[in-house]
TrEMBL record:
UniProt cross-references to InterPro entries, sorted A to Z: Beta-barrel_TonB, Beta-barrel_TonB_sf, Plug_dom, Plug_dom_sf, TonB-dep_rcpt-like, TonB_box_CS, TonB_rcpt_CS
Taxonomic source organism: Pseudoduganella umbonata
CC annotations in GO: cell outer membrane
Composition bias type Pro residues, residue spans: 57-72
Signal peptide, first to last residue: 1-27
Name of the featured protein: Outer membrane receptor protein involved in Fe transport
Cross-referenced Gene3D superfamilies: TonB-dependent receptor, beta-barrel domain (2.40.170.20), TonB-dependent receptor, plug domain (2.170.130.10)
Segments of this protein annotated with the region Disordered: 42-77
Superkingdom of origin organism: Bacteria
Motif TonB box boundaries: 78-84
Chaperone as UniProt keyword: no
Length: 1003
C-alpha cells in the first residue's frame, strides 16, 4: 500500500507522462530548444562561479540570440558567487569555491545529494545515516548535516538559494535531506570564512544549494539499488513540473520526492557481521596491568577475537569462588570459556557468543519525503515577487546495540529464586555477604533497543528581487521574509528502566504462596513482575512489559526560525581599472526552541501528573534519568540577532604589463540579544598576473559563531559526584548539567592564499588551483568537568566561580557543569583542485575525456581545551576522528553525446589510532592520561573505486547505473576499550559494494 504522499507523487508522474505523449512535434521542438538554451545558460553561470571550471573543447562561436523581451536583460557577465554578495563584471572573488553542477550530481547517482557532497575532501566530520548509529540520546541520529574542515556541523553554514533554513536540531544545524533536491542545479562549497557576507556559523565555510527557479517542463528520476549482501535496498522517485503563464509573467514550479533506504539491520550477538559480511572480528584495545606498565610494556595493545570477561550472553558470575560460572539453555550452569592472554577486561578467543559490538546497525533505515513549490510573478521586465513553500519529513530507525549489557555490576542474592540449586548452594557457602556479582548481555530480551527519530519541516518564504536605476547606475536587490518550523520527535522502544530492571531480577519466593515475586514490597505494590536473567530461557512477558514499558523514552522538540533580509548590490562608479561595486544589506533573525522529554527521563515537572502512557511509579526517581539510555530533559529558549553588512569590490590595477587586480573588503556588525555585539570582516584580493592563465588570490577574515540555543539553554540534569577542594579533601556535590546564558561568540581568524591556473594558451584544456588555508578559532564553546571547574575557581577564574558552590553545609554543594569560552581550535592545510578535458577527435576517436581531481591535505587540526594542566591534541591523521591527513576524490569520465562512463577513486591516507598515543613495544615510558602508550599506533588508509555509466536512450530519456565500492573493500576496524561498534564511518566505507540503476526523463 502507498501513503497519500506516495500516491500523489505517482499520480503526478503518470499525469506528466500522459501530457507529454500528447505534445505535438512543434511543441516538443520548442521545449527542446528552450531546454538547450537553459542548459547552456546554466553551464555558463556554473563555470563563472566555480573554482575550477571543467575545460570545454574548442567550438565555433555561437550566433548571439535575440534577447527575450519578457526576461530581465541585466548587466552582461554578472554573477552572484556564494563567497560574496557582489555581482559585477569581471569580478573574481578571492575566497576559494568548489562548484558541483547538476551534471556532476547526476553522475554521482546517489539517492541523496548529501551522500555526494560528503565525498568532497574539504567536507570532514559530517553526520549521516551511517554515523551515530550507536547513539540513543545524542539527538542527531539520522540527521544529514555538513561539516567543513572537521570543525563540526555547527561551524558550517548551509543555505538554500542563499537563504537560511530552520534548524533540524536545537544546535541550529540543518538537514540537507529536507531540501528539494531534484531542482538543485548546482551546489557551491565555499571553503573559507564567509561570516562577513552571510553571518554567524560560517567559520568553516558555506554550502549553498542553488535551485532552478525558472524550471520549465517536466522531469522525473526513478532509481533503485541494493548492496552485494542483499541489504540496504533503496528506491527513489522524484518528479518536478514547471510552466509559465500569462506571457511567462506568472511562473509555477512544483516538485515531490520520495526516497526509501532499508538500512542494514543488526545481526545480533556474537562475532558475526550483518548478512554475510565476514570482516568483523571483535577488535578491542586490551589494557595491561600497572605492573607490566611499570616494567616498560605499553598500556594498550590492539587485539582481535576479543572476549569481554565481565559478562556472557545469558549471565556470568564475575567474582568469588563461583567466578566463571555461566548459564546456558534452561539456566543450566557451565564453565565459561575465557580464552587466552587475559588482561584487563579482555581475553583473546573464548566464548564470544555474547559480544555486542557487531549488533549496531551499519546504516539506518531511512525515509525522506519532500514537497516543494515556488510561484513567482514578474511585476515588470526587471522585478519579480515570489513565494515558496516546503514540506519535508525524514524518518529513520535503527538499533544502537543488542540487549543491554551489564558488565559484572549486578548484585544477586544467594536466595534468588531463579538460581539453579547447585549455584544457590555454592553461593551460600562461598559468599559470606550472601551476594555475588553477575554480568549479562541480556540476550533473553525479545527485541533490541530501537530508536525512531522523525523530523518534519514546514518552511515558507516570500520575497522579491530585481533591479532599479539610481544615479545613472543599475542596482540589483533581493529581499525575503522566511518562517520555518521543525518538529523533531525521537521515540525509543524496547528499552528498560534501570530501577525496575533491578527490582525485577531480585526475585525471591513468597513464604506464604511459594510463588516467585519481586523482593521489594514497594516495587510489588507498584506492579513489579519478576524476570529471570539466568540462561537461555523465554522471558516472562509480564516482567518484560514491566521493565520495558511500551511507551519508552520520548523527546518532542519544536524549533522555529523567522528571518527578514534585504540585500542590494550594484556598481558605484567606473574606476580607472574597472567598475567599483558594492553590496550592502541588513537582516533580522529570531530562533526559538522548546523541548519536552517524557516524565521518566525528564523528571516530574509542570507537566505532571503523569499521563496514562507514563503512570506514576513511586519506585522511580522524580528527578528523571530512569532509563537505560535516552533520558531526555525539558528545555526552552530563544534569541534574536540584528545585523548589517557592507561589501566593496575595488579594481585597482589594469595593465597590459602588470595584469589586473581587485580588492574585496566587507564588514558585518551583529547584535545578539544573548551574546551581545559581534563583528565579522574580510579583506581579500585577486591578481590576474601577466603570466598567461595565472591568477593569485588571498583573503583574511574574522568570522564568528554565536552560541546556539542548546549551548545557551540546555535543560538541567543532575548527578552526584565527588570533587577535591583546595585542601585536598573529597566532598560530595551535585553536578548540575545546564546551559550557560552568559556565553559569548566564538571568534575565528581565517587566512588563505592560492594560485589558480586557468586554461593558459599552452594548455587550453587544463585548469588547476592550489590554496593554503589557516583557521584559528578562539573563545571556543566547550564544557568542563566538575573537578576542572573547582580547580579553575580556586585559581582565580571568577566567571567559573559563579558556577561553583562547595563551602555550604552537606547536601547543598553543587557545581554547574556548563560550557565556557575557554577552548581553541586551529586547523591548517592545503586544497588542490584540477580539471583537464581532451576531445578524442584529435586521435580519430569518438567523444571526449575529462579528468578531475580534488584533494585536501590537513597539516594540523589542533584542539586546546584551554584548561590549566591540559595540552592541545592533534587531530590530523587521527583515524578515530574526522580529519585524515589526505582525502582525495579523483574521477575520469568519457562521453560521446550518447554514452558516458565515469570511474571515481576515493582515497584516504593512512594515519594513527591517536596522535597523543606513544607507540612503543619495550622500554615504554609510564603512560599518562594525556599520553597513553600503545603497541601499534598505525591505522591503514583506503581506496574505494566507483564506476558509473549513462545511456541517452533518446533526447528525453537517460538510463544510468552506478556501482560504489566496486572492489567491495572491507572497512578498517577501529578497536575500542569496550566492545562497541569498532568502525569509523566518518572516514571509512562501512556498507560495502552497492549497486544502483535508474532512469531520468526530461520533457
Amino acid at each position: 500500500m502507498h501513503s497519500p504522499f506516495q500516491r500523489t507523487l505517482i499520480h503526478l508522474a503518470v499525469a506528466g507522462a500522459c501530457g507529454i505523449l500528447a505534445l505535438s512535434a512543434q511543441a516538443q521542438a520548442q521545449a527542446q530548444a528552450q531546454a538547450q538554451a537553459q542548459a547552456q545558460a546554466q553551464a555558463q553561470e556554473g563555470q563563472a562561479e566555480t573554482n575550477i571550471a571543467v575545460p570545454q573543447p574548442d567550438a565555433p562561436p555561437a550566433t548571439p540570440a535575440a534577447p527575450d523581451p519578457a526576461a530581465p536583460a541585466g548587466p552582461a557577465n554578472t554573477v552572484i558567487v556564494s563567497g560574496s554578495r557582489i555581482a559585477a563584471r569581471g569580478f573574481s572573488q578571492p575566497i576559494p569555491t568548489t562548484t558541483l553542477t547538476n551534471a556532476d550530481l547526476e553522475k554521482a547517482a546517489k539517492p541523496n545529494l548529501f551522500e555526494t557532497l560528503v565525498e568532497l575532501p574539504a567536507l570532514q566530520g559530517s553526520t549521516g545515516r551511517t554515523t551515530n548509529t550507536f547513539s540513543t540520546s545524542s539527538g542527531i541520529q539520522g540527521l544529514s548535516s555538513l561539516s567543513l574542515r572537521g570543525l563540526g556541523t555547527i561551524r558550517t553554514l548551509t543555505l538554500l538559494d542563499g537563504q537560511r533554513v530552520v534548524g533540524a536540531n536545537v544546535t541550529g544545524i540543518t538537514d540537507v535531506s529536507q531540501f528539494p533536491q531534484l531542482l538543485v542545479k548546482r551546489v557551491d562549497v565555499v571553503t573559507g570564512g564567509a561570516s562577513a557576507s552571510y553571518g554567524s556559523d560560517a567559520i568553516g565555510g558555506v554550502v549553498n544549494f542553488i535551485t532552478d527557479k525558472k524550471f520549465a517542463g517536466f522531469k522525473t528520476n526513478l532509481s533503485g539499488g541494493m548492496t552485494k549482501y542483499d541489504d540496504d535496498k533503496s528506491a527513489t522517485l522524484q518528479a518536478a513540473w514547471g510552466k509559465g503563464f500569462l506571457d511567462d509573467r506568472l511562473h509555477v514550479t512544483v516538485s515531490g520526492e520520495f526516497t526509501k533506504q532499508n538500512g542494514i539491520d543488526s545481526p545480533g550477538f556474537g562475532e558475526v557481521g550483518a548478512n554475510g559480511r565476514n570482516w568483523y572480528n571483535n577488535p578491542a584495545l586490551q589494557e595491561s596491568t600497572r605492573e607490566m606498565q611499570a616494567a616498560g610494556q605499553p598500556r594498550y595493545r590492539s587485539i582481535v577475537h576479543a572476549q569481554h570477561i565481565q559478562y556472557a550472553k545469558y549471565g556470568l558470575i564475575t567474582n568469588g569462588p563461583l567466578r566463571g560460572t555461566a548459564f546456558g539453555p534452561g539456566g543450566t550452569p557451565y564453565p565459561f570459556e575465557y580464552g587466552t592472554d587475559c588482561m584487563g577486561n579482555f581475553c583473546i578467543g573464548g566464548d564470544r557468543s555474547g559480544s555486542v559490538g557487531a549488533g549496531t546497525n551499519l546504516a539506518m533505515n531511512f525515509k525522506r519525503q519532500v514537497a516543494y513549490s515556488r510561484v513567482s510573478w514578474n511585476l515588470d521586465a526587471d522585478n519579480e515577487i515570489y513565494v515558496t513553500a516546503n514540506w519535508a519529513q525524514v524518518k529513520s530507525h535503527f538499533s544502537p546495540n543488542p540487549g543491554a549489557a551489564k558488565q559484572g555490576n549486578l548484585s544477586i542474592g544467594c536466595d534468588n529464586a531463579y538460581l539453579p540449586a547447585s549455584v544457590a548452594a555454592g553461593c551460600v557457602s562461598g559468599y559470606p555477604t550472601g551476594v555475588m556479582s553477575v554480568g549479562t548481555a541480556n540476550a533473553q530480551f525479545p527485541a533490541n533497543i530501537n530508536v525512531h527519530p522523525t523530523r518534519t519541516q514546514r518552511r515558507f518564504v516570500a520575497g522579491a528581487n530585481g533591479k532599479f536605476a539610481l544615479f545613472g547606475k543599475d542596482w540589483a536587490y533581493d529581499a525575503y521574509a522566511e518562517h520555518g518550523e521543525n518538529t523533531t520527535i525521537i521515540d525509543v522502544r524496547d528499552i528498560t528502566l534501570n530501577r525496575r530492571y533491578n527490582f525485577a531480577i531480585d526475585a525471591v519466593r513468597d513464604p506464604a504462596s511459594g510463588a516467585i515475586v519481586c523482593r521489594s514490597a514497594e516495587a510489588r505494590a507498584a506492579g513489579c513482575q519478576p524476570v529471570n536473567i539466568f540462561g537461555d530461557v523465554p522471558i516472562n512477558m509480564a516482567g518484560w512489559e514491566y521493565i520495558a514499558p511500551r511507551t519508552g523514552p520520548r523527546q518532542h522538540t519544536e524549533s522555529r526560525q523567522n528571518v527578514a533580509s534585504v540585500n542590494v548590490n550594484g556598481e558605484v562608479w567606473e574606476g580607472w581599472a574597472g567598475p567599483v561595486s558594492m553590496a550592502f544589506g541588513a537582516e533580522y533573525r529570531r530562533e526559538k526552541y522548546a523541548v519536552v522529554g517524557d516524565p521518566y527521563g525528564a523528571g516530574v515537572t509542570d507537566q505532571s501528573p503523569y499521563s496514562a502512557a507514563w503512570p506514576l511509579d513511586p519506585t522511580l526517581s522524580v528527578t528523571g534519568d530512569n532509563w537505560f539510555a535516552g533520558n531526555y530533559h525539558n528545555g526552552e529558549g530563544s534569541f534574536n540577532v540584528k545585523e548589517a553588512y557592507v561589501e566593496f569590490n575595488i579594481p585597482f590595477l589594469k595593465s597590459a604589463t602588470w595584469g589586473e587586480a581587485n580588492l574585496n573588503i566587507a564588514d558585518r556588525e551583529e547584535k545578539y540579544s544573548t551574546a551581545g555585539h559581534a563583528r565579522a570582516w574580510k579583506i581579500g584580493a585577486t591578481w590576474k598576473t601577466p603570466i598567461d592563465g595565472v591568477r593569485l588570490r588571498a583573503v583574511s577574515s574574522k568570522d564568528v559563531r554565536a552560541p546556539n540555543l542548546s549551548e545557551l539553554y540546555a535543560a538541567m540534569t543532575v548527578t552526584n559526584q565527588a570533587v577535591n577542594n583546595s585542601q585536598g579533601s573529597s566532598i560530595q556535590v551535585q553536578q548540575r548539567n545546564v546551559g550557560n546564558p552568559n556565553l559569548k561568540p566564538e571568534n575565528a581568524r581565517n587566512n588563505s592564499f592560492g594560485v589558480v591556473l586557468s586554461q593558459p594558451g599552452w594548455a587550453r584544456n587544463l585548469s588547476l588551483s592550489v590554496d593554503f588555508y589557516d583557521i584559528k578559532v578562539k573563545n571556543v564553546i566547550s564544557s568542563l568537568n566538575p573537578q576542572q571547574e573547582v580547580d579553575l575557581c580556586y585559581a582565580g577564574y571568577q566567571e567559573v566561580c559563579a558556577a561553583v558552590s562547595i563551602d555550604g553545609p552537606a547536601g547543598t554543594n553543587y557545581v554547574l557543569a556548563q560550557s565556557f569560552n575557554f577552548a581553541s581550535l586551529h586547523t591548517r592545510g592545503v586544497d588542490i583542485e584540477g580539471a583537464w578535458r581532451q576531445p578524442l577527435s584529435d586521435w580519430g576517436l569518438p567523444g571526449a575525456v575529462t579528468l578531475r581531481g580534488l584533494a585536501t591535505r590537513t597539516i594540523h587540526s589542533l584542539s586546546d581545551p584551554g584548561v590549566p594542566g591540559t595540552t592541545p591534541t592533534e587531530g590530523a591523521g587521527n583515524m578515530t576522528g574526522a580529519t585524515p591527513k589526505w582525502k582525495a576524490l579523483l574521477s575520469q569520465s568519457w562521453e560521446d553525446g550518447r554514452f558516458g562512463l565515469t570511474l571515481t577513486e576515493r582515497w584516504i591516507s593512512s594515519g594513527v589510532f591517536n596522535n597523543e598515543y606513544i607507540e612503543c613495544r619495550t622500554g615504554c615510558p609510564l603512560p599518562t592520561a594525556a599520553h597513553p602508550t600503545i603497541y601499534d599506533n598505525h591505522m591503514p588508509g583506503a581506496v574505494y573505486l566507483d564506476l558509473g555509466g549513462t545511456w541517452n536512450v533518446t533526447k528525453q530519456v537517460t538510463a544510468y547505473f552506478k556501482v560504489d565500492n566496486l572492489a567491495d573493500r572491507d572497512p578498517v576496524l577501529v578497536p575500542q576499550t569496550n566492545l562497541s561498534l569498532a568502525l569509523n564511518p566518518a572516514v571509512y566505507d562501512a556498507v560495502g559494494r552497492t549497486y544502483r540503476a535508474g532512469v531520468r526523463m526530461t520533457f
